């Protein structure tokens, strides 16, 4: 009798511990499970590699510390910075491009052509300690736009927009639409076009000897998903 076994390179490999943050609709804890369309993309890529993964959601600072110290094997989704690249092994393939967009009330007359300077006369609302990419952050730091309100969360920021505490909300696009749906304010808020900036985010691996080659294999499978259409199908499920 012929006994079929998994390839040796797979059979002896331990499950990989992945960490992330609560960031719907990309990734989020729901009950005992971790869901989200980026979680689905990551799991599919590792499944094609023949690797088992365990995904945990923690506060962002703790997740970063865990992967930097080797307690976790990889972290997603994160932007590239020189400091992080010195400590982590980033995928070469972008895991998820993230758009930073502006939102206003439906009855607002504000228009946007891609130049933040034209919005200097309006009041912006942001979330404390959140980066909105180099374009917006630089404009705010240089005083070319006015930050009128700072909220503790994206949900609170949306509530302030609806209450007319400021004129323009800046947010990760899909994150804002997730909040809009959960707060049932689809008829009150609209998105301005074009986005302020599109920023690629990645998965990054701990610099551990037993992870040698895992990043390259992940890149190859993610690239294959982009070619065969499975990546686009998973992303489209989250598009408003």
Automatic annotation (TrEMBL):
The protein, known as: Amino acid ABC transporter substrate-binding protein
A Pfam family hit: SBP_bac_3
Keyword Signal: yes
Domain of life: Bacteria
PANTHER family, per the entry: ABC TRANSPORTER SUBSTRATE-BINDING PROTEIN (PTHR35936:SF25), MEMBRANE-BOUND LYTIC MUREIN TRANSGLYCOSYLASE F (PTHR35936)
SMART domains attached to this UniProt entry: PBPb
Residues of the Solute-binding protein family 3/N-terminal domain: 15-238
Organism: Chromobacterium violaceum
Keyword Signal in record: yes
Sorted UniProt keywords: Signal
InterPro entries (UniProt xref): Solute-binding_3/MltF_N
């Amino acid at each position: 009798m012929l006994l079929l076994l998994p390839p040796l390179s797979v059979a002896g490999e331990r499950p990989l511990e992945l960490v992330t943050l609560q960031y719907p609709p990309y990734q989020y804890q729901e009950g005992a499970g971790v869901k989200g369309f980026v979680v689905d993309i990551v799991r599919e890529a590792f499944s094609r590699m023949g690797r088992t993964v365990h995904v945990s959601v923690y506060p962002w600072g703790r997740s970063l510390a865990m992967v930097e110290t080797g307690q976790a094997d990889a972290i997603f989704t994160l932007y590239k910075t020189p400091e992080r690249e010195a400590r982590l092994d980033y995928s070469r393939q972008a895991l998820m491009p993230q758009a930073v967009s502006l939102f206003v009330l439906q009855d607002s007359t504000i228009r946007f052509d891609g130049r933040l300077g034209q919005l200097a006369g309006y009041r912006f609302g942001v979330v404390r300690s959140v980066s909105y990419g180099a374009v917006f952050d630089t404009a705010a730091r240089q005083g070319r736009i006015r930050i009128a309100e700072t909220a503790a969360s994206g949900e609170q920021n949306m509530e302030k927009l609806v209450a007319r505490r400021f004129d323009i909300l800046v947010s990760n696009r899909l994150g804002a639409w997730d909040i809009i749906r959960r707060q049932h304010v689809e008829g009150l808020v609209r998105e301005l076009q074009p986005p302020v900036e599109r920023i690629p985010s990645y998965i990054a691996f701990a610099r551990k000897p037993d992870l040698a080659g895992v990043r390259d294999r992940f890149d190859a499978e993610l690239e294959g998903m982009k070619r065969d259409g499975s990546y686009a199908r998973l992303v489209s499920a989250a598009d408003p």
